[in-house]
Write a structure and sequence with these properties.
With 129 residues, the chain is an all-alpha fold. It is built from 5 helices and no strands.
Length: 129
């Protein structure tokens, strides 16, 4: 009895790791473009934020052009500021645009308690004047 083993070569264009990045699915391509455009918009806003113009004021002023509530804009800007503190995730996001704003905001919310703890401990250990 002869046994034949068939092997197949890997596809020349392997499927995307994330289904939202499937280049063979027109809907995935379109929604990736939407995520990329939204990400770039909010990144430009987060990049120009400076101490003289706080996040709350910027979020309020953007309400008239985005049609979104101030709180939504505030959370979007903070999500991008948090992402900037995660360089590996930011690089992956800027390559794949696999995370939508809702997921970036969830990451920001999840890391906020850790950030608050770090801020408290650094101020608690700082010398007082």
């Amino acid at each position: 009895m002869t046994t034949t083993t068939l092997t197949t070569a890997p596809p020349s264009n392997p499927p995307a790791f994330y289904t939202v990045n499937n280049a063979l699915d027109p809907d995935a391509v379109d929604t990736t473009a939407l995520r990329a455009a939204e990400y770039r918009f909010w990144k430009r806003k987060a990049d120009v934020l400076n101490p003289e113009r706080d996040c709350d004021a910027l979020a309020s002023s953007l309400s008239r052009v985005t049609g979104k509530p101030r709180r939504y804009n505030y959370n979007a800007i903070n999500a991008l500021l948090t992402l900037a503190e995660l360089p590996r995730l930011q690089a992956l996001q800027e390559e794949l645009f696999h995370l939508d704003l809702h997921r970036l905001q969830a990451i920001d919310r999840a890391l906020a308690p850790a950030d608050a703890t770090t801020s408290r401990s650094s101020t608690a250990n700082s010398p007082t004047t």
